[in-house]
Request: fold
Amino acid sequence: MAQGNLLDLTIIEAAAQLERRRLSPVELTEAMLQRIGNVDKQIRAYITVCDEQAREVAGATERMIRAGYYLGPLHGIPVALKDNIYTRGVRTTAGSKILADFIPTEDATVAARLKRAGAIIVGKTNMHEFAWGGTTDNPHHGTCRNPWNPERFPAGSSGGSGAAVAARTCLGALGTDTGGSIRLPSSVNGIVGIRPTIGRVSNYNVVPLAWTMDTVSPMTRTVEDCVVMFEAIAGYDPFDEHSAHAPVADYRAELPRPVRGLRVGLVRDYSLTHVQKAVGDAVRAALKRLEELGAQVEEIAMPSIHGNISAQLTIESCEPSAYHQQWLRTRAADYGEDVRTLLELGEMYLATHYIQAQRYRSLLRKEFLEGFKRVDVFVTPTLPFTATPCGATEVVIEGNRKEDMLSAIMQFTGVPSLAGLPALSLPIGFDPDGLPVGMQVIGRPFDEGTLFRVGHAYQQATDWHTRSPRL
Amino acid sequence: MKSEEPVTKETVERLCAQAELALAPERRTRLVPMLAGLIGAANELSRKMAAAAHRSILPILRFPER
Reply:
């Protein structure tokens, strides 16, 4: 098969060919490693490329499949992992200088589960240092760039995973999401990403950002691929104290269920407010498409939603500062300037600020659970703007007013993070500059299945997810 | 720190001392406007959450499995 064709294969398509032995895992892995070699000097999506290990595993995989031992749809699929996810024997830097030489002696549960499913890890992806930021402008490992326009940012903190998938250097990747770190790069890189319900996917052996909000999950080009990776990693893990016993559904079986009759909620004065015009237009068009598929859109008031950014900044400031307390006193100069500043600021909140922010989460969650009596999902843009220039610290959303990037970027993704709800981002169009726009679909706790179903129905009716950046 | 009190260099100095966080004077100065914004917003949220209508709300640190 020609290399160009291989690069465009989805996980589902590649799996079908691998199972029938029409495609060799060695050939597929080589194509990805070659692609990394061709584009990653420009994109910097990877901190470590595991070429030697990937080739070894691909060879072994080929022998297994040839011998009749096919493990399932991830067997022989090249994937990448964000570099805060422990990988045994492969350095795991968390995008930092502090952990630059850290080589874990065991895998994160999610890494072990992907390996068990037969996935081939081609590399560890670039990220915002310690996941504390949304740009992936990394001072230690290089500025990651957006494959749709390398002058623009890939968002973050899982910017490397987003760029790696969009640039066709792997078929899927894992990211981590605290306040939006999977959904933001999924949106600006034109791919799919899901933040799971807290407890659904194990955080064991993942370098934390904020313990009460951290999650791990896949980033892929299609919803169906996302489901394949999600099914491999979801489920109870005794090593993670926050892991939930909630049963994991057969998400793939549920995908074909139509969305006719599905009730979609918009939060009044929030869901389509304070967004760039192209973003608002794209979300309205996507809602119309869902209505054409039989969904019903309803507006719901949620008086407590304003205040979410302060709550998120408070929690995301205090918890990382607690985790980094010792390093901030012994290795402060080894942090990048932005992260160091945020960690210093996080030491200066009062305990009451932190507790009130955690109480706010209860209030917000209660309002959402009340809202879910009337609708099945809520919809917002994933972020209110499209990819900004690399290095920007401010963004213009409306008029000429410049806003702080960190607060602006959290406008929509912070809400499900605080409320402990799952949320899917999927591509729904492009702005006039050819930059992707994403839509966020928020679901009930542990109801990732409905999010996948909505996303899949939308992707069956549109072709945004099939477009690729010119690199 | 009282919610009405503006964030100044002295505020940051006092908070650093309480946290046993040794920061150079220029770093402390740099933090003042950023901290003022963050603490202002956090105080506003605190006022909202301290209202009588919300007194029964508990902090959420771990989510129920349903």
